[in-house]
Amino acid sequence: QVQLVESGGGLVQAGGSLRLSCAASGRSFSSITMGWFRQTPGKERDVVASLTTGTQTIGTPYYRDSVKGRFTISRDNAKNTVYLQMNSLKPEDTAIYYCAAARFGAGWQNAYWGQGTQVTVSS
């Protein structure tokens, strides 16, 4: 089992910044894909950004088009924590943000999930 605990959500004005953190504990994988998803009422949970790491980053991070150039995903292996730096926030970024982790290649359908953290961007 992998336990994920998110933090860093909150209320911010449009144009502002927030940094989300996701601390992982429990089972470890030699290569793991960690991602941030978001969900608004009545809509599906969509991936925002993801990053695959082993001893080093594997491939390049993925970002959905709407956040490219504004959001940055990173991981601190020593702290077993993944971050999502969100800059130039827009009201449409308002959502519950979830952290997910999956063994590399296993797919998100086999992911472990955090409890979610609310991000609200006011106009």
Task: Describe the secondary-structure layout.
Blueprint: E1 2-7, E2 10-13, E3 18-26, E4 32-39, E5 46-53, E6 57-63, E7 71-76, E8 81-86, E9 95-103, E10 112-113, E11 117-122
Parallel strand pairs: 2-11
Antiparallel strand pairs: 1-3, 3-8, 4-5, 4-9, 5-6, 7-8, 9-10, 9-11
Low-confidence stretches: none
Q: H/E element string?
A: EEEEEEEEEEE
The averaged pLDDT comes out at 93
Rg calc: 14 Å
Give an account of the 3D structure.
The protein has 123 residues and is mostly beta strands. 0% of the residues lie in helices and 58% in strands. It is built from no helices and 11 strands. Strands 2, 4, 5, 6, 9, 10 and 11 form a 7-stranded mixed β-sheet that branches. A 4-stranded antiparallel β-sheet has the order 1-3-8-7, with no helix packed on it. The chain is globular, with a radius of gyration of 14 Å. 31% of the residues are buried. The mean pLDDT is 93.
At a glance:
With 123 residues, the chain is mainly beta.
Features:
123 residues, 7-stranded mixed β-sheet, mainly beta, 0% helix, 4-stranded antiparallel β-sheet
